[in-house]
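Researcher: Here's a chain I'd like modeled. Treat it as a single chain, no partners, no ligands.
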Amino acid sequence: MKHRSVLSLICLSAAAVMFATGCAPVDNLEVSGPVYTGSDTLPAVTTTTTTTTTTTTTPPPPPDPTVHFLAVGDNLVQTHVYRSAQKWSADGTYDFTKTYENVAPIIAAADVAIINQETLICGGNYEVSGSNFNFNSPVELGDEMVEIGFDVFTLANNHLLDKRVDGLLSSLDYWDAMADEHGILAVGAYRDAEDQNNIRVQEVNGMKIAYLAYTEHLNGYSIPAGSPVKIGLTDDVALIERQIKEAKEIADAVIVSAHWGNEDTHTVAERVYTLADQMIQWGADVILGGHSHTAQTMEYITREDGTKGFVFYSLGNFVSAQTDNFNMIGEMGEFDLTLDLDTGEIIVENVEVMPVITHYDDAQRSNLRLYPYNMYTAELADGHGVPYAPLGTAKTFGMDVINRIVQANIPEEFRKLD
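Model: Modeled as a single isolated chain. Structure tokens:
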């Protein structure tokens, strides 16, 4: 075999060299590679082959965007509300921390928190006041609302002209400054037509949300002729329809604040039902009602194409210093908006409503503060300072009164009590 002949030649050559030189055989010769052992075949050489397989994985589609909202009713800062805050202040100004501290964690937990700011915040030389048709709250109130986490302030309500047009413009100056500093939105009152047609849109979690706001009346006041100031009114249905449809074109979701209906009643007015249905059909996804100062019902409304919007007919008071027991219970409405990326549909889901109670300690309405229902107790209810009941009857207040109002006006499927 060829490999044996070659190996014999190598061995003979080595022996001849040793004989010629007289050298002794080498005992410790190191040989590299396979060593011949006398067999007819050399040791096999092992070859390792590596095969690389490339697998292409398609990433899963992104999840549908979802935004968690909290909405509350009228922030009606009457005289006794800010007097309590003044009492709690260390320097004689106003400290609203204790007024809202029990509900602050709920507000902070939302992706977006919305409030109807019922009273003007004019600042400057405008006197702080809290009586009917003459509201102006201290700037510390607005500062506290932003501090505890409110992101959107709806301004359209019947008190917008309490300090006439100049007072409203001063209030808009305050909200513009807060928008620049903190990124909040304030909607419902505008400097001119161009400002009104500039629909406010925010983007949260990949979803674009547009906000609109309208009021039913202005306490008999009106914008003077020649003033460019604009306020949307609920009887201007052409404006509302146009703006909702325009908002739907530039945003995924549309939320409308409506200050409407009758005061001091749990009964929803027929005109409110009618306009709510129209707004949903035009494209509004959620309607946040206010003005009644009472908790009212809520429901889904189905559009002609089978999709649904949701309306809170009135969230009632968030805070007030009113004196009827039915004014003490408002609503904190939570809900999620989910954008179906395949269809573009906005789905309103996970609606939950926690009652919120305005509490004060005596008939002088001192130490006025808010409690979510799950923090309120029978002891607090029994010690509430509310002096009046409907029709001038003797005072009636307690957990039984609260529960009757809750059960009658917040449907069980949306009720959240713990």
